[in-house]
DNA sequence: CCTCCACAGGAACTGATGGCGT
DNA sequence: ACGCCATCAGTTCCTGTGGAGG
């Protein structure tokens, strides 16, 4: 009689592994050989070229849907330039920040500053006026004669923040060079949204959009090629069946040509096959993987909702396909049961649209003539999944 | 053709939090 | 000790609206 844990461990140790290099299966890993986009790489390099001649390159705007390799290409080019220039005593500072991850203007600026090695003392994480933070960053560049390249990913989010707060940070960033006597600042903006430029201040457009590069979507053929390369590097030979590969490419290519998703799918399918002690990845594992990824995503977003959002989701679950009013009164009941103060209807509408953004529910605006206007909400996931995920939540236990 | 429902969703505000400079 | 600043969750007040029913 063997211990189940030992049995699994034994199997894992002795069992053959069809994945030979796990790291390569993660998208962030960039082996130099595996990266297409040759013409885009060239374009990015071209526009940043002046830095080699020790002058400031134009600001750059990069467009492309998710998973088209924009960020990878930009980072790769800059780090190569950095390598070459480091020796010539002309310090380039690559600063990367993602405006979706930094939710506030302040946070974004601080993350930029930190990468210019401003310390806690020099740049506290809170308490300062935004203009003060900006000034300190510029001072740092000036004093150290940095040639900073700010790569701002998902710059459309930053543009939103800017318009919400009325602080004209983007404009100041693009014109920062006028305030610098030493060093320089180059801005590289990356955006998923091809139309976002229209929403910008025209003064910003003229200086930010000095150069523009568009990354087109991958088509299914290209994705397939990328996957083939990854498979070659990371799986042992002949362990991914042709139809499985095709399905991977088709599933990911069907939407936006998202290479990241395709590789994710491949990785999870490979891991599943290994866990099932198979020596080949077949269509079945890809299907399973796609479902598993989907479910995981839903589960984590369910868990991350604050209490009131969870209550709302439960209220929708109780009466699927109901209007805002019905959901609200149902929600008020739930609040009474768990003994919490209820929020106003206005807040609930807002929360509903926030939840809708996450894709867990689906709202449809309908007009009922004299019975007014409502939005009807439906769950897009099974109520079992909700019950399962909320069961561990102490305050919600009785309702579920 | 008009009315009036039942909300949607924008804008401005409040109060709490946390931390700065002086 | 004081005023100031940014941010967040939430509130108050508001204007807008497609079409069934009169």
Could you characterize the architecture of this molecule?
This protein has 400 residues and is an alpha/beta fold. It has 3 domains: 12-21 and 218-301, Helicase, Ruva Protein, domain 3 (Orthogonal Bundle), CATH 1.10.8; 38-215, 3-Layer(aba) Sandwich (Rossmann fold); 305-396, Arc Repressor Mutant, subunit A (Orthogonal Bundle), CATH 1.10.10.10. The chain contains 16 helices and 8 strands. It has helices spanning 4-14, 38-48, 70-86, 105-115, 130-144, 155-165, 169-174, 202-208, 220-234, 242-255, 259-275, 283-304, 307-318, 324-338, 345-357, 383-390, and strands spanning 60-64, 92-98, 147-153, 184-191, 211-215, 322-323, 361-367, 373-379. It has a 5-stranded parallel β-sheet, sandwiched between helices. The radius of gyration is 25 Å and the shape is globular. The chain binds a DNA duplex (22 and 22 nucleotides) through residues 103-106, 124-130, 132, 165, 306, 323-325, 343-347, 349-350, 353, 365-375.
SSE layout and pairing:
Layout (H helix, E strand, L loop, with lengths): L3 H11 L23 H11 L11 E5 L5 H17 L5 E7 L6 H11 L14 H15 L2 E7 L1 H11 L3 H6 L9 E8 L10 H7 L2 E5 L4 H15 L7 H14 L3 H17 L7 H22 L2 H12 L3 E2 H15 L6 H13 L3 E7 L5 E7 L3 H8 L10
Parallel strand pairs: 1-4, 1-5, 2-3, 3-4
Antiparallel strand pairs: 6-8, 7-8
Helix pairs in contact: 2-3, 4-5, 9-10, 9-11, 10-11, 10-12, 11-12, 12-16, 13-14
The chain binds a DNA duplex (22 and 22 nucleotides) through helix 15, strand 7 and strand 8.
């Amino acid at each position: 009689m063997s211990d189940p844990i030992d049995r699994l461990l034994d199997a894992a140790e002795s069992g053959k592994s069809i994945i030979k290099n796990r790291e390569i299966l993660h998208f962030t890993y960039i082996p130099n050989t595996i990266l297409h986009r040759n013409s885009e790489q060239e374009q990015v390099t071209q526009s940043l070229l002046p830095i080699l001649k020790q002058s400031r390159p134009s600001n750059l705007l990069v467009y492309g849907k998710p998973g088209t390799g924009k960020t990878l290409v930009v980072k790769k080019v800059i780090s190569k330039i950095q390598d070459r220039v480091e020796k010539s005593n002309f310090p380039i500072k690559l600063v990367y920040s993602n405006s979706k991850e930094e939710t506030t203007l302040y946070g974004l600026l601080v993350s930029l500053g930190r990468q210019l090695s401003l310390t806690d003392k020099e740049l506290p994480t809170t308490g300062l006026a935004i203009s003060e933070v900006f000034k300190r960053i510029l001072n740092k560049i000036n004093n150290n004669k940095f040639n900073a390249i700010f790569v701002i990913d998902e710059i459309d989010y930053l543009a939103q923040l800017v318009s919400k707060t009325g602080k004209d940070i983007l404009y100041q960033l693009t014109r920062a060079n006028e305030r610098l006597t030493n060093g320089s600042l180059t801005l590289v903006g990356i955006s998923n949204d091809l139309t976002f430029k229209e929403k910008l201040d025209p003064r910003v457009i003229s200086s930010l959009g000095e150069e523009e590069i568009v990354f087109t979507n991958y088509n299914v053929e290209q994705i397939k090629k990328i996957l083939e390369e990854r498979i070659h590097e990371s799986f042992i030979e002949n362990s991914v069946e042709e139809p499985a590969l095709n399905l991977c490419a088709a599933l990911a290519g069907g939407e936006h040509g998202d290479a990241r998703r395709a590789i994710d799918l491949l990785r999870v399918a490979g891991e599943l096959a290994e866990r099932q002690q198979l020596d080949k990845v077949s269509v079945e594992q890809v299907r399973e993987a796609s479902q598993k990824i989907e479910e995981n995503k839903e589960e984590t977003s369910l868990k991350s909702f604050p209490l009131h959002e969870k209550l709302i989701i439960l209220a929708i679950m109780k009466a699927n396909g109901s209007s805002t009013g019905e959901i609200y009164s149902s929600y008020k009941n739930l609040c009474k049961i768990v003994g919490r103060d209820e929020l106003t209807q206005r807040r609930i509408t807002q929360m509903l649209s926030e939840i809708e953004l996450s894709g867990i529910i689906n709202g449809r605006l309908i007009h009922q003539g004299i019975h007014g206007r409502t939005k009807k909400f439906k769950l897009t996931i099974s109520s079992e999944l909700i019950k399962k995920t909320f069961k561990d939540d102490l305050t919600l236990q009785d309702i579920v």
